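FIELD: query
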Amino acid sequence: MIKIINSKENSTYKYLWEIFCGKVNNKVLIYGDDLIYEAKASSKLESLIVYENEYIDEEMETIVLKENLFKNICSYKSLPKRIGVAHLNYSLPKRGDLIYLDGVQDPGNVGTIIRTALAFSYAGVVLSKDSANIYNTKVVQASKGAIFKIPVIKKDIFDLDLSNYEVIGTSLQGEDIKNYVPSRKERILVFGSEGQGMSEKVGNICTKKLLLPIKDIDSLNVASAASIFIYVLRRENGN
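FIELD: result
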């Protein structure tokens, strides 16, 4: 199906604009054929948006916009050939280790952590309500398509059933990760905001707090630190 839109008053265009602004739950716009391919391979691609007929895909629902309208919903100065409309509709699995982001607001960091969590077989990523918008274009781009393959939701940790989890916070006041002895429970790894770290409220519910022994600097970027924790703890879990 091909739909041609020439006016910003068109209802479909208004809907695309709402998605672009991050105001439509479970819907994102994606840029670049690599992300479009990942979304399609994960059965998350709904339609394509183009501004020139030569980029139409006969196998997909395609929306043809006037170039100025296409530019309006593009996050980059250099126009891609196509924009994808994809959906994210996830619920957390009942089993498996999770990542919790407590006030992590930088979209690039969030996307990178999602990608790392997928790479090391974590079951899902949960973002606090004051973390970055899941539908932010930069989150999706930084995840390199991982966001289509691993459950990612927004929910405060206090609304999760924590009875089956060991909640491990990352803190400069924590115990050296080298001394950590795994429990039999599944884990939630908690990473705090870029500037403040974990909130006191979240820190109070952690059953364990760990740190990375680093030298000559005060701290690491949250995505860098998360990558190390995710890798080390997953390896210790025998996976």
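FIELD: remark
The chain is about 25% helix and 25% strand.
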